[in-house]
Protein backbone atom coordinates (compact mmCIF):
# COMPACT_ATOMS: atom_id res chain seq x y z
CA UNK A 1 0.00 0.00 0.00
CA UNK A 2 1.08 3.54 -0.62
CA UNK A 3 0.07 6.51 1.49
CA UNK A 4 -2.13 8.96 -0.40
CA UNK A 5 -3.53 10.97 2.52
CA UNK A 6 -1.61 12.85 5.18
CA UNK A 7 -2.65 14.44 8.45
CA UNK A 8 -0.34 17.25 9.55
CA UNK A 9 -0.39 18.21 13.22
CA UNK A 10 1.32 21.49 14.11
CA UNK A 11 1.11 24.36 11.64
CA UNK A 12 4.14 26.42 12.59
CA UNK A 13 6.32 27.47 9.64
CA UNK A 14 7.83 24.00 9.17
CA UNK A 15 4.55 22.08 9.61
CA UNK A 16 2.63 24.44 7.33
CA UNK A 17 5.25 24.14 4.60
CA UNK A 18 5.43 20.35 4.87
CA UNK A 19 1.62 20.26 4.54
CA UNK A 20 1.77 22.49 1.47
CA UNK A 21 4.57 20.42 -0.02
CA UNK A 22 2.53 17.21 0.37
CA UNK A 23 -0.58 18.88 -1.10
CA UNK A 24 1.38 20.28 -4.04
CA UNK A 25 2.43 16.71 -4.72
CA UNK A 26 -1.17 15.61 -5.11
CA UNK A 27 -1.84 14.27 -1.62
CA UNK A 28 -5.01 15.02 0.34
CA UNK A 29 -3.83 16.81 3.50
CA UNK A 30 -5.83 17.23 6.70
CA UNK A 31 -4.40 20.02 8.85
CA UNK A 32 -4.72 20.58 12.59
CA UNK A 33 -3.21 23.00 15.06
CA UNK A 34 -3.86 23.15 18.81
CA UNK A 35 -4.91 26.79 18.37
CA UNK A 36 -7.79 26.68 15.88
CA UNK A 37 -7.08 30.26 14.74
CA UNK A 38 -3.77 29.04 13.29
CA UNK A 39 -5.59 26.34 11.28
CA UNK A 40 -8.09 28.93 10.02
CA UNK A 41 -5.28 31.28 8.99
CA UNK A 42 -3.54 28.44 7.19
CA UNK A 43 -6.70 27.62 5.25
CA UNK A 44 -7.26 31.28 4.39
CA UNK A 45 -3.77 31.56 2.94
CA UNK A 46 -3.21 28.21 1.29
CA UNK A 47 -6.57 26.50 0.68
CA UNK A 48 -6.24 27.11 -3.06
CA UNK A 49 -2.90 25.30 -3.29
CA UNK A 50 -4.26 21.77 -2.97
CA UNK A 51 -6.74 19.37 -1.45
CA UNK A 52 -6.82 20.41 2.22
CA UNK A 53 -9.25 19.50 5.00
CA UNK A 54 -9.36 21.85 7.97
CA UNK A 55 -9.68 20.02 11.31
CA UNK A 56 -10.49 21.26 14.79
CA UNK A 57 -9.83 17.96 16.56
CA UNK A 58 -8.04 14.66 16.07
CA UNK A 59 -11.43 13.04 15.64
CA UNK A 60 -12.10 15.40 12.70
CA UNK A 61 -8.75 14.54 11.23
CA UNK A 62 -9.18 10.79 11.46
CA UNK A 63 -12.63 11.10 9.88
CA UNK A 64 -11.29 13.27 7.06
CA UNK A 65 -8.72 10.68 6.04
CA UNK A 66 -10.32 7.45 4.84
CA UNK A 67 -7.64 6.17 2.50
CA UNK A 68 -4.12 4.95 3.04
CA UNK A 69 -3.06 7.49 5.61
CA UNK A 70 -0.25 8.69 7.84
CA UNK A 71 -0.21 11.35 10.56
CA UNK A 72 2.78 13.67 10.60
CA UNK A 73 3.58 15.57 13.79
CA UNK A 74 5.60 18.77 13.57
CA UNK A 75 5.62 20.23 17.08
CA UNK A 76 8.36 21.26 19.52
CA UNK A 77 10.56 18.31 20.50
CA UNK A 78 10.00 16.87 23.98
CA UNK A 79 6.81 16.52 26.04
CA UNK A 80 4.66 18.18 23.33
CA UNK A 81 5.32 15.20 21.02
CA UNK A 82 4.26 12.73 23.74
CA UNK A 83 1.15 14.80 24.43
CA UNK A 84 0.11 14.77 20.76
CA UNK A 85 0.75 11.02 20.51
CA UNK A 86 -1.27 10.37 23.67
CA UNK A 87 -4.25 12.38 22.40
CA UNK A 88 -4.11 11.13 18.82
CA UNK A 89 -3.62 7.37 19.26
CA UNK A 90 -7.01 6.58 20.82
CA UNK A 91 -8.57 7.69 17.50
CA UNK A 92 -6.30 5.56 15.33
CA UNK A 93 -6.69 2.05 13.95
CA UNK A 94 -4.15 -0.72 14.15
CA UNK A 95 -1.56 -0.34 11.39
CA UNK A 96 -1.94 3.44 11.17
CA UNK A 97 1.30 5.38 10.82
CA UNK A 98 2.59 8.29 12.92
CA UNK A 99 5.60 10.26 11.68
CA UNK A 100 7.39 12.55 14.12
CA UNK A 101 9.12 15.03 11.81
CA UNK A 102 10.47 17.37 14.49
CA UNK A 103 13.99 17.49 15.95
CA UNK A 104 13.27 14.87 18.62
CA UNK A 105 16.05 13.46 20.73
CA UNK A 106 16.74 9.93 19.46
CA UNK A 107 16.34 8.12 22.82
CA UNK A 108 12.77 9.52 22.93
CA UNK A 109 12.21 8.14 19.45
CA UNK A 110 13.56 4.72 20.47
CA UNK A 111 11.04 4.68 23.31
CA UNK A 112 8.13 5.88 21.16
CA UNK A 113 8.74 3.26 18.47
CA UNK A 114 8.47 0.54 21.12
CA UNK A 115 5.51 2.02 22.98
CA UNK A 116 3.52 2.46 19.79
CA UNK A 117 4.45 -0.97 18.46
CA UNK A 118 2.68 -2.43 21.52
CA UNK A 119 -0.44 -0.50 20.50
CA UNK A 120 -0.24 -1.69 16.88
CA UNK A 121 0.68 1.78 15.61
CA UNK A 122 3.62 2.04 13.22
CA UNK A 123 5.97 4.89 14.10
CA UNK A 124 8.63 6.72 12.11
CA UNK A 125 11.02 9.20 13.74
CA UNK A 126 12.05 11.33 10.81
CA UNK A 127 14.74 13.99 10.75
CA UNK A 128 13.84 16.80 8.36
CA UNK A 129 16.38 19.35 7.27
CA UNK A 130 16.17 22.38 5.04
CA UNK A 131 14.53 25.09 7.08
CA UNK A 132 11.30 26.68 5.95
CA UNK A 133 12.19 26.87 2.26
CA UNK A 134 13.35 23.25 2.22
CA UNK A 135 10.17 22.07 3.93
CA UNK A 136 8.14 23.63 1.13
CA UNK A 137 10.30 23.06 -1.91
CA UNK A 138 12.09 19.85 -1.01
CA UNK A 139 13.82 18.95 2.25
CA UNK A 140 16.25 16.18 3.03
CA UNK A 141 14.43 13.56 5.10
CA UNK A 142 15.86 10.90 7.39
CA UNK A 143 13.12 8.44 8.43
CA UNK A 144 13.88 5.69 10.92
CA UNK A 145 11.71 3.23 12.85
CA UNK A 146 9.06 0.86 11.51
CA UNK A 147 10.31 -0.36 8.13
CA UNK A 148 6.88 -1.33 6.78
CA UNK A 149 5.70 2.22 7.53
CA UNK A 150 8.62 3.52 5.45
CA UNK A 151 7.66 1.22 2.56
CA UNK A 152 4.16 2.68 2.63
CA UNK A 153 5.34 6.30 2.88
CA UNK A 154 8.23 5.96 0.45
CA UNK A 155 6.43 7.22 -2.68
CA UNK A 156 4.94 10.25 -0.96
CA UNK A 157 8.17 11.21 0.84
CA UNK A 158 10.19 10.74 -2.34
CA UNK A 159 7.88 13.12 -4.20
CA UNK A 160 8.27 15.68 -1.41
CA UNK A 161 12.06 15.41 -1.00
CA UNK A 162 14.77 17.45 -2.71
CA UNK A 163 16.70 16.05 -5.67
CA UNK A 164 20.17 14.78 -4.85
CA UNK A 165 21.62 16.00 -8.15
CA UNK A 166 22.53 12.43 -9.12
CA UNK A 167 19.08 11.39 -10.30
CA UNK A 168 17.80 10.33 -6.86
CA UNK A 169 15.83 11.91 -4.03
CA UNK A 170 17.07 13.12 -0.67
CA UNK A 171 15.23 10.55 1.41
CA UNK A 172 16.09 6.98 2.36
CA UNK A 173 15.17 4.57 5.12
CA UNK A 174 17.83 5.09 7.79
CA UNK A 175 17.27 2.13 10.09
CA UNK A 176 15.35 0.90 13.10
CA UNK A 177 14.46 2.67 16.34
CA UNK A 178 15.71 6.21 16.78
CA UNK A 179 18.31 6.03 13.99
CA UNK A 180 16.56 8.63 11.80
CA UNK A 181 16.62 11.22 14.55
CA UNK A 182 20.17 10.19 15.49
CA UNK A 183 21.36 10.89 11.95
CA UNK A 184 19.52 14.23 11.95
CA UNK A 185 21.15 15.10 15.28
CA UNK A 186 24.59 14.40 13.81
CA UNK A 187 23.65 16.47 10.76
CA UNK A 188 22.99 19.35 13.13
CA UNK A 189 26.27 18.77 14.98
CA UNK A 190 28.10 19.04 11.66
CA UNK A 191 25.98 22.12 10.93
CA UNK A 192 27.23 23.72 14.17
CA UNK A 193 30.82 22.85 13.21
CA UNK A 194 30.65 24.33 9.72
CA UNK A 195 28.82 27.45 10.89
CA UNK A 196 31.50 28.06 13.53
CA UNK A 197 34.29 27.50 10.97
CA UNK A 198 32.64 30.08 8.72
CA UNK A 199 32.38 32.48 11.66
CA UNK A 200 36.08 32.05 12.45
CA UNK A 201 37.03 32.62 8.81
CA UNK A 202 34.93 35.80 8.87
CA UNK A 203 36.64 36.93 12.08
CA UNK A 204 40.14 36.46 10.65
CA UNK A 205 39.36 38.02 7.28
CA UNK A 206 37.73 40.99 8.98
CA UNK A 207 39.88 41.52 12.05
CA UNK A 208 43.26 40.27 10.88
CA UNK A 209 43.17 41.08 7.17
CA UNK A 210 40.81 44.08 7.40
CA UNK A 211 38.22 42.90 4.84
CA UNK A 212 35.14 45.09 4.40
CA UNK A 213 31.64 43.57 4.24
CA UNK A 214 31.69 44.07 0.46
CA UNK A 215 34.96 42.16 0.21
CA UNK A 216 33.63 39.44 2.49
CA UNK A 217 30.47 39.08 0.39
CA UNK A 218 32.53 38.88 -2.79
CA UNK A 219 34.96 36.36 -1.25
CA UNK A 220 32.33 33.93 0.05
CA UNK A 221 30.31 34.23 -3.17
CA UNK A 222 33.41 33.35 -5.19
CA UNK A 223 34.17 30.41 -2.88
CA UNK A 224 30.66 29.15 -3.41
CA UNK A 225 31.52 28.68 -7.08
CA UNK A 226 34.44 26.37 -6.31
CA UNK A 227 34.65 22.55 -6.21
CA UNK A 228 36.01 22.74 -2.67
CA UNK A 229 33.49 24.92 -0.85
CA UNK A 230 30.30 25.06 -2.94
CA UNK A 231 27.56 24.67 -0.31
CA UNK A 232 24.38 26.17 1.08
CA UNK A 233 26.09 27.59 4.18
CA UNK A 234 28.80 29.37 2.17
CA UNK A 235 26.12 30.69 -0.20
CA UNK A 236 24.01 32.22 2.57
CA UNK A 237 27.11 33.57 4.33
CA UNK A 238 27.92 35.64 1.23
CA UNK A 239 24.35 36.94 1.21
CA UNK A 240 24.50 37.88 4.91
CA UNK A 241 27.42 40.26 4.21
CA UNK A 242 25.48 41.94 1.42
CA UNK A 243 22.46 42.74 3.57
CA UNK A 244 22.05 46.44 4.41
CA UNK A 245 20.43 47.44 7.69
CA UNK A 246 16.95 48.87 7.15
CA UNK A 247 16.77 50.50 10.59
CA UNK A 248 20.12 52.31 10.68
CA UNK A 249 23.01 52.98 8.32
CA UNK A 250 25.47 50.28 7.36
CA UNK A 251 25.31 46.51 7.09
CA UNK A 252 23.00 44.41 9.24
CA UNK A 253 25.76 41.98 10.27
CA UNK A 254 27.46 44.77 12.23
CA UNK A 255 24.29 45.38 14.29
CA UNK A 256 23.58 41.77 15.30
CA UNK A 257 24.15 40.90 18.96
CA UNK A 258 26.92 38.32 19.19
CA UNK A 259 25.24 35.69 21.40
CA UNK A 260 24.40 32.53 19.42
CA UNK A 261 21.24 30.63 20.29
CA UNK A 262 20.93 26.85 20.36
CA UNK A 263 17.98 24.55 20.68
CA UNK A 264 19.90 21.49 21.79
CA UNK A 265 20.85 19.27 18.86
CA UNK A 266 24.51 20.41 18.90
CA UNK A 267 24.75 19.76 22.63
CA UNK A 268 23.14 16.32 22.16
CA UNK A 269 25.73 15.51 19.49
CA UNK A 270 28.54 16.35 21.90
CA UNK A 271 26.96 14.36 24.71
CA UNK A 272 26.39 11.32 22.52
CA UNK A 273 29.91 11.49 21.10
CA UNK A 274 31.22 11.35 24.67
CA UNK A 275 28.84 8.50 25.36
CA UNK A 276 30.03 6.43 22.39
CA UNK A 277 33.67 7.43 22.92
CA UNK A 278 34.07 9.20 19.59
CA UNK A 279 36.19 12.35 19.30
CA UNK A 280 34.41 15.15 17.44
CA UNK A 281 36.55 18.13 18.47
CA UNK A 282 35.67 20.42 15.55
CA UNK A 283 31.99 20.08 16.47
CA UNK A 284 32.52 20.23 20.24
CA UNK A 285 34.49 23.47 19.86
CA UNK A 286 31.54 24.93 17.99
CA UNK A 287 29.13 24.00 20.79
CA UNK A 288 31.52 25.55 23.33
CA UNK A 289 31.87 28.68 21.19
CA UNK A 290 28.08 29.19 21.27
CA UNK A 291 28.07 28.62 25.04
CA UNK A 292 30.93 31.11 25.53
CA UNK A 293 29.22 33.71 23.36
CA UNK A 294 26.32 33.50 25.81
CA UNK A 295 28.47 33.76 28.96
CA UNK A 296 28.03 37.51 28.99
CA UNK A 297 28.95 38.11 32.63
CA UNK A 298 32.13 36.09 32.31
CA UNK A 299 32.99 37.86 29.07
CA UNK A 300 32.45 41.25 30.72
CA UNK A 301 34.72 40.27 33.62
CA UNK A 302 37.50 39.31 31.21
CA UNK A 303 37.17 42.11 28.71
CA UNK A 304 40.17 43.92 30.18
CA UNK A 305 42.44 40.86 30.32
CA UNK A 306 45.94 41.72 29.13
CA UNK A 307 46.31 40.52 25.55
CA UNK A 308 49.86 40.30 24.21
CA UNK A 309 49.81 40.45 20.45
CA UNK A 310 53.34 41.70 19.95
CA UNK A 311 54.40 38.40 18.39
CA UNK A 312 52.46 39.12 15.24
CA UNK A 313 53.15 37.06 12.15
CA UNK A 314 53.64 39.37 9.15
CA UNK A 315 50.40 39.67 7.20
CA UNK A 316 50.34 38.09 3.73
CA UNK A 317 49.06 40.09 0.74
CA UNK A 318 45.22 40.26 0.50
CA UNK A 319 45.02 37.73 -2.37
CA UNK A 320 47.23 35.28 -0.53
CA UNK A 321 45.25 35.86 2.64
CA UNK A 322 42.13 34.84 0.79
CA UNK A 323 43.63 31.61 -0.43
CA UNK A 324 45.03 30.83 3.04
CA UNK A 325 41.58 31.29 4.57
CA UNK A 326 39.97 29.24 1.82
CA UNK A 327 42.31 26.29 2.37
CA UNK A 328 41.90 26.48 6.15
CA UNK A 329 38.13 26.46 5.80
CA UNK A 330 38.08 23.63 3.30
CA UNK A 331 40.28 21.25 5.31
CA UNK A 332 38.50 22.10 8.55
CA UNK A 333 35.08 21.45 7.01
CA UNK A 334 36.37 18.04 5.92
CA UNK A 335 37.15 17.22 9.56
CA UNK A 336 33.64 18.22 10.67
CA UNK A 337 32.12 15.79 8.16
CA UNK A 338 34.72 13.14 9.00
CA UNK A 339 33.86 13.33 12.70
CA UNK A 340 30.11 13.21 12.05
CA UNK A 341 30.45 10.05 9.96
CA UNK A 342 32.72 8.43 12.53
CA UNK A 343 30.13 9.09 15.21
CA UNK A 344 27.39 7.54 13.07
CA UNK A 345 29.59 4.52 12.32
CA UNK A 346 30.24 3.78 15.98
CA UNK A 347 26.65 4.39 17.14
CA UNK A 348 25.37 2.22 14.30
CA UNK A 349 27.45 -0.72 15.54
CA UNK A 350 26.36 -0.24 19.12
CA UNK A 351 22.65 -0.11 18.24
CA UNK A 352 22.77 -2.60 15.34
CA UNK A 353 21.23 0.05 13.11
CA UNK A 354 23.27 -1.05 10.11
CA UNK A 355 23.45 2.55 8.87
CA UNK A 356 24.33 2.96 5.22
CA UNK A 357 26.71 5.91 5.54
CA UNK A 358 26.99 6.31 1.79
CA UNK A 359 23.23 6.80 1.62
CA UNK A 360 23.35 9.21 4.59
CA UNK A 361 25.87 11.33 2.66
CA UNK A 362 23.84 11.07 -0.54
CA UNK A 363 20.58 12.25 1.02
CA UNK A 364 22.46 15.27 2.41
CA UNK A 365 23.55 16.31 -1.09
CA UNK A 366 20.38 18.32 -1.55
CA UNK A 367 17.70 20.03 0.53
CA UNK A 368 19.48 20.08 3.88
CA UNK A 369 21.43 22.83 5.62
CA UNK A 370 24.84 21.13 5.32
CA UNK A 371 24.43 20.25 1.64
CA UNK A 372 27.68 20.69 -0.22
CA UNK A 373 29.70 19.23 -3.05
CA UNK A 374 31.97 17.62 -0.46
CA UNK A 375 29.27 15.16 0.54
CA UNK A 376 29.79 13.42 -2.79
CA UNK A 377 33.24 12.46 -1.45
CA UNK A 378 31.64 10.80 1.59
CA UNK A 379 28.98 9.13 -0.48
CA UNK A 380 31.88 7.58 -2.44
CA UNK A 381 34.03 6.89 0.62
CA UNK A 382 31.35 4.71 2.24
CA UNK A 383 30.00 3.08 -0.91
CA UNK A 384 30.55 -0.61 -1.52
CA UNK A 385 32.19 0.15 -4.84
CA UNK A 386 35.95 -0.14 -4.33
CA UNK A 387 36.80 2.27 -7.14
CA UNK A 388 34.56 4.93 -5.58
CA UNK A 389 36.21 4.31 -2.21
CA UNK A 390 39.61 4.79 -3.84
CA UNK A 391 38.54 8.00 -5.56
CA UNK A 392 37.40 9.41 -2.22
CA UNK A 393 40.55 8.32 -0.39
CA UNK A 394 42.69 9.87 -3.11
CA UNK A 395 40.73 13.11 -2.97
CA UNK A 396 41.20 13.41 0.80
CA UNK A 397 44.88 12.59 0.60
CA UNK A 398 45.44 15.15 -2.14
CA UNK A 399 43.73 17.88 -0.15
CA UNK A 400 45.85 17.27 2.94
CA UNK A 401 49.14 16.61 1.21
CA UNK A 402 49.34 19.84 -0.79
CA UNK A 403 49.80 23.49 0.07
CA UNK A 404 46.44 23.62 1.83
CA UNK A 405 47.79 22.08 4.99
CA UNK A 406 50.53 24.71 5.15
CA UNK A 407 47.84 27.35 4.69
CA UNK A 408 45.79 25.92 7.54
CA UNK A 409 48.80 26.13 9.84
CA UNK A 410 49.53 29.68 8.70
CA UNK A 411 45.88 30.70 9.20
CA UNK A 412 46.14 29.56 12.82
CA UNK A 413 49.46 31.37 13.32
CA UNK A 414 47.93 34.56 11.97
CA UNK A 415 44.85 34.34 14.18
CA UNK A 416 46.63 33.20 17.34
CA UNK A 417 49.35 35.83 17.08
CA UNK A 418 46.66 38.52 16.96
CA UNK A 419 44.50 37.19 19.77
CA UNK A 420 41.65 36.04 17.54
CA UNK A 421 40.06 32.83 18.81
CA UNK A 422 39.67 30.09 16.20
CA UNK A 423 38.54 27.13 18.32
CA UNK A 424 36.96 24.92 15.65
CA UNK A 425 39.71 25.55 13.10
CA UNK A 426 42.34 24.79 15.76
CA UNK A 427 40.44 21.66 16.76
CA UNK A 428 40.38 20.58 13.11
CA UNK A 429 44.16 20.99 12.87
CA UNK A 430 44.68 19.15 16.15
CA UNK A 431 42.38 16.35 15.00
CA UNK A 432 44.56 15.84 11.94
CA UNK A 433 47.80 16.20 13.89
CA UNK A 434 46.71 13.74 16.56
CA UNK A 435 45.57 11.08 14.13
CA UNK A 436 48.65 11.03 11.94
CA UNK A 437 51.18 10.70 14.80
CA UNK A 438 52.79 7.33 15.32
CA UNK A 439 53.63 8.04 18.97
CA UNK A 440 51.29 10.11 21.09
CA UNK A 441 52.28 11.70 24.41
CA UNK A 442 49.54 9.71 26.11
CA UNK A 443 52.39 7.35 27.04
CA UNK A 444 53.12 9.93 29.73
CA UNK A 445 49.49 9.92 30.86
CA UNK A 446 49.72 6.14 31.22
CA UNK A 447 52.90 6.51 33.25
CA UNK A 448 51.27 9.10 35.53
CA UNK A 449 48.21 6.89 36.03
CA UNK A 450 50.40 3.99 37.00
CA UNK A 451 52.50 6.28 39.24
CA UNK A 452 49.67 7.52 41.41
CA UNK A 453 47.11 4.77 41.07
CA UNK A 454 48.83 1.55 39.98
CA UNK A 455 46.52 1.59 36.95
CA UNK A 456 49.09 -0.40 34.93
CA UNK A 457 50.32 0.18 31.38
CA UNK A 458 51.17 -1.78 28.26
CA UNK A 459 54.63 -1.69 26.65
CA UNK A 460 55.63 -1.22 23.02
CA UNK A 461 58.28 -3.94 23.18
CA UNK A 462 56.60 -6.70 25.21
CA UNK A 463 53.13 -8.19 25.58
CA UNK A 464 51.34 -8.06 28.90
CA UNK A 465 50.27 -5.54 31.48
CA UNK A 466 52.87 -3.83 33.67
CA UNK A 467 53.13 -1.91 36.89
CA UNK A 468 56.33 -0.50 38.41
CA UNK A 469 57.31 1.25 41.60
CA UNK A 470 58.03 4.73 40.20
CA UNK A 471 60.08 6.03 43.16
C1 LIG B 1 17.80 22.02 9.65
C2 LIG B 1 18.18 22.84 10.84
C3 LIG B 1 17.02 22.98 11.75
C4 LIG B 1 17.13 24.10 12.75
C5 LIG B 1 18.20 23.85 13.76
C6 LIG B 1 18.62 25.10 14.47
O1 LIG B 1 18.47 21.02 9.45
O2 LIG B 1 16.85 22.39 8.95
O3 LIG B 1 19.22 22.21 11.53
O4 LIG B 1 16.75 21.74 12.32
O5 LIG B 1 17.33 25.31 12.11
O6 LIG B 1 17.69 22.95 14.67
O7 LIG B 1 19.27 24.69 15.57
P1 LIG B 1 19.85 25.64 16.66
O8 LIG B 1 18.73 26.53 17.11
O9 LIG B 1 20.30 24.71 17.73
O10 LIG B 1 20.95 26.40 16.00
- The name of the CATH superfamily of the largest domain reads N-(1-d-carboxylethyl)-l-norvaline Dehydrogenase, domain 2
Residue runs with pLDDT of under 50 for 5 or more positions? none
> Any ligands, ions or cofactors bound here, and which?
6-phosphogluconic acid
> Would you list the SSEs in sequence order as H and E?
EHEHEHEHEHEHEHHHHHHHHHHHHHH
How far is the first residue's CA from the last residue's CA? 74 Å
Mean pLDDT: 97
Let me know the largest β-sheet.
Answer: 7 strands, mixed
How many helical stretches? Answer: 20
CATH class of the largest domain: Mainly Alpha
Question: Which structural class matches the secondary elements?
Answer: alpha/beta
Q: How many strand segments?
A: 7
Widest beta sheet: strand line-up: 3-2-1-4-5-6-7
Q: Could you say how many structural domains there are in total?
A: 2
Based on the structure given, which CATH architecture of the largest domain is correct? Orthogonal Bundle
Q: Kindly identify the CATH topology of the largest domain.
A: N-(1-d-carboxylethyl)-l-norvaline Dehydrogenase, domain 2
Helix content: 55-70%
Fold and architecture overview:
The chain is of the alpha/beta class and 471 residues long. It has 2 domains: 5-177, 3-Layer(aba) Sandwich (Rossmann fold); 185-436, Orthogonal Bundle (N-(1-d-carboxylethyl)-l-norvaline Dehydrogenase, domain 2), CATH 1.10.1040. The protein is 56% helix and 8% strand. It is built from 20 helices and 7 strands. The chain has helices at residues 13-24, 36-46, 58-64, 79-88, 106-118, 131-137, 147-160, 179-207, 213-223, 232-242, 265-276, 281-294, 296-302, 318-351, 357-363, 375-381, 386-401, 403-416, 423-436, 442-453, and strands at residues 5-9, 28-32, 52-55, 69-73, 97-100, 122-129, 140-145. Strands 3-2-1-4-5-6-7 form a 7-stranded mixed sheet, with helices on both faces. Helix 1 links the parallel strand 1 and strand 2. Helix 11 crosses helix 12. The protein is globular, with a radius of gyration of 25 Å. The structure holds 6-phosphogluconic acid (6PG).
Amino acid sequence: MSINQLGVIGLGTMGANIARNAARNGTKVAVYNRTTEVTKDFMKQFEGEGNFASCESYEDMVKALHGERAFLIMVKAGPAVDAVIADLTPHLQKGDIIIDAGNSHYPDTERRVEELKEKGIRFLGMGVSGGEVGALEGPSMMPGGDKSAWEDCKDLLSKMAADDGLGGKCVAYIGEGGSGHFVKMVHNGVEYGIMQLLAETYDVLKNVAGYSNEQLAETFAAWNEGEDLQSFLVEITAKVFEKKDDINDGHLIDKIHDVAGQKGTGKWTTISALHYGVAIPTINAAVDARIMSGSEELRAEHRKDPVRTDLEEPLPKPEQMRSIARSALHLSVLTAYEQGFELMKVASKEHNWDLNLSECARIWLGGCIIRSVLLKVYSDAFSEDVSRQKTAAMYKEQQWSGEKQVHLRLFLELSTSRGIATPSTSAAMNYFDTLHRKDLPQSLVQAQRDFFGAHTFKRKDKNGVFHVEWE
